[in-house]
Amino acid sequence: MRVIVGYGSSQGSTAQIAERIAEILRDSGNTVDVRPVQEIDRPGDFDAAVLGSALHNQAWLPEAAAFLHTHAPVLAKKKVWLFSVGMSDGLPKPIRAMARSGQEKRIAQSLRGDVQPRGHRLFSGVCQPWQLPRAGSILFRAAGGRFGDYRDWPSIESWARDIAQDIKHTAPGR
User: Fold this and answer.
1) How far apart are CA 51 and CA 18, in angstroms?
2) CA 121 to CA 38: how far, in whole Å?
3) Which region holds residue 25: left if phi is over 0, alpha if psi is between -120 and 50, else beta?
4) Which of 62-72 are b and which e, b meaning 16 or more Cβ less than 10 Å from the residue's Cβ?
5) Which is nearest to 17 in space by CA: 62, 65, 83?
6) Cα distance between residue 170 and residue 130, in whole Å
7) What's the DSSP call for residue 37?
8) Domain topology for 2-169
9) What is the rounded CA–CA span in Å between residue 110 and residue 66?
10) Considering 61, 94, 122, 141, which has the largest number of Cβ atoms within 10 A of its Cβ?
């Protein structure tokens, strides 16, 4: 099957996750293109889509949300999976679950009605001091936040393998 893996990334972490998802899908025999959502002209040319975005203020980046909304009529007829990349695992443990739950709810509300994805996953990404304004970095540390790379590659890869299996079992002629 022909699959597009599209992403909105501000610092590169989401792009790297998209690249790894694409590798897994290719290893499963799919033809996969991976690119920023702004560079996807014809999503209808693909059989399936895996679309993701970095989260800023618990919402998808504007270009990724706009892509999803603009192409909703085409994507609604395709197999679509969504992923979001935030920094919840860098937050202090007492507020981590609350933040993750809040992110899930806000994402569901913002994406509701456009496309019914076969699945959505929220992954933690990379959070470094230089990615935040100085005051934000100070507040983050004062609240007990920890900077670092929180991408759970085994979880990301497992999810991508699940998508590959789903695609395989729903390929044309099956």
Assistant:
1) 8
2) 22
3) alpha
4) ebbbebbeebe
5) 83
6) 44
7) G
8) Rossmann fold (3.40.50)
9) 11
10) 61
What does the domain layout of the chain look like in residue ranges? 2-169
Q: Which residues pair with 122 in a beta bridge?
A: 84
Split at pLDDT 50, 70, 90, the class of 166 is very high
Residue appearing with tokens 């597009």: 4
d(CA 147, CA 167): 36
Q: Is the entire prediction scored with pTM above 0.70? A: yes
Query: How far is 116 from 118, CA to CA, in rounded Å?
Result: 7
123-152 confidence digits (pLDDT tens):
988 877 777 778 877 877 777 777 788 899
pLDDT of amino acid 172: 53
Give, as one character, the DSSP assignment of residue 128. Answer: -
Please give the single-letter amino acid code of residue 147: F
Cβ atoms of residues 28 and 41 within 8 Å:
no
Strand pairing report for 119-124 and 79-86: parallel
153-169 vs 13-27: helix crossing angle, rounded to 10: 40
Task: Specify the long-range contacts of residues 131-137, CB closer than 8 Å, at least 24 apart.
Answer: 131/11
Distance CA 95, CA 144 (A): 10
Q: Is the pLDDT of residue 173 over 70?
A: no
